[in-house]
Design a protein that fits this description.
about 180 residues; Aminopeptidase; alpha+beta; 5 helices
């Protein structure tokens, strides 16, 4: 009896990304469809806009974490960017390849990025999202964030990756 087909794939490892990973970050973002790009950037983003965005990323200031598949390709990333006009605050963004959604990967990535940002001095994390993007609202709530306005959630404590997830019952039904 062959057991190779019965072995479950291991959960992708989540790790901090650096400057050398930026080409793979760009590849991941370029692979997002137009609807996912709109959700991620809160506006349409063509290939040139994504290339410019990645060129401006500074892993020395922005916390970047990612998860790669068995071939080393990023299947999800989370970013915690310093907010210019709000000291000790980061803005969090997450994207996960459609084939890997609803596995808790976005939550693991966001929790890791926020925890690293807090370890480096941040005191608040802001999630900005389109009001119809209930998946990100649910993600933020599952990490302990509270909705402060339509399309905005704020987290003021280090999230626990093992915390319960049911904060927004219907929010996780939509893809991030």
């Amino acid at each position: 009896m062959a057991v190779a087909g019965l072995i479950a794939a291991a959960a992708p490892a989540v790790r901090r990304l650096g400057r050398r990973d930026l080409p793979e970050v760009q590849r991941h973002l370029l692979a997002l469809g137009s609807a996912d790009r709109r959700k991620r950037f809160l506006s349409p983003a063509d290939d040139g806009a994504i290339a410019g965005y990645v060129a401006r990323l500074d892993p020395g200031r922005t916390v970047l974490v990612g998860a790669a598949d068995a071939d080393g390709r990023l299947i999800g990333i989370a970013e915690a960017h310093p907010v210019v006009d709000a000291p000790r605050t980061v803005e969090v963004a997450v994207s996960v390849h459609p084939y890997h959604r609803r596995e808790g990967l976005g939550r693991r990535l966001a929790a890791r990025a926020v925890a690293l940002a807090f370890a480096e001095g941040a005191e608040a994390a802001v999630f900005l999202f389109a009001p119809e993007n209930r998946a990100v609202a649910g993600l933020a709530a599952s990490l302990g964030g509270r909705l402060t306005a339509m399309g905005c959630a704020v987290l003021t404590g280090v999230p626990s990756i093992d915390a319960p997830t049911g904060a927004v019952p219907d929010a996780l039904g939509l893809a991030a």
